[in-house]
Amino acid sequence: MLLALFYYEGKNFYGEKTSGIFETENKNSVAKKIKNQGFIPVKIRKIKTNSFSYKITTFLNKVNPMDLAVFCGQFAVMLDAGVTILESLTSIAKQTENRKIRDTIIDLTWHIKRGYTLAEACRNHHYIFS
């Protein structure tokens, strides 16, 4: 399975906008993920990994280490308490204010529901979980 990076923009029925990057198989997969988040895809384009825009977007998609540490701490506590991976991720996503982390958690959940392992899902976000 070859993965590519896609930049997306979406809008919901209330006019709220979202945008970001998914690393996935194709545009259809990106569109499904956007729809699962309650948004209508407005723009989806493949990013060339050797381009300047790729390097900029990778830099901009880095998350604050403190926010990532908070996520990891919450995740560890929930798993230690016996909460399943999917339930933990879903709960954390609902409470997370950082959009980049929330979108990433939603994508992790999407992949896990489709049979991917947590490690495989995290590999799709190597710019966060490196």
Characterization of the model:
The chain has two domains: 1-61, Ubiquitin-like (UB roll); 62-130, no CATH class. The chain contains six helices and three strands; from the N terminus they run ββαβααααα. It has helices at 27-36, 52-60, 65-80, 85-95, 99-113, 118-123, and strands at residues 4-11, 17-24, 40-47. Strands 2-1-3 form a three-stranded antiparallel sheet, sandwiched between helices. Helix 3 (65-80) packs across helix 4 and helix 4 runs antiparallel to helix 5 (99-113). The longest helix has 16 residues, at 65-80. The protein is globular.
Indicate the topology.
Elements: E1 4-11, E2 17-24, H1 27-36, E3 40-47, H2 52-60, H3 65-80, H4 85-95, H5 99-113, H6 118-123
Helix pairs in contact: 3-4, 4-5
Summed up, what is this model?
The chain is of the alpha+beta class and 130 residues long.
| Major pleated sheet | 3 strands, antiparallel
Question: What Rg is obtained from the alpha carbons, in whole angstroms?
Answer: 15 Å
Strand order of the largest sheet: 2-1-3
Compute the number of structural domains: 2
Q: What class would the helix/strand composition place it in?
A: alpha+beta
Distance between the termini: 20 Å
Shape: globular
Total strands: the figure is: 3
Q: Averaged pLDDT, please?
A: 84
Low-confidence stretches: none
User: Oligomeric status of the shown chains?
Assistant: single chain
SSE order, one letter for each helix or strand: EEHEHHHHH
Question: What fraction of the residues are assigned to beta strands by DSSP?
Answer: 15-25%
- Portion in helices: 40-55%
Number of helices: 6
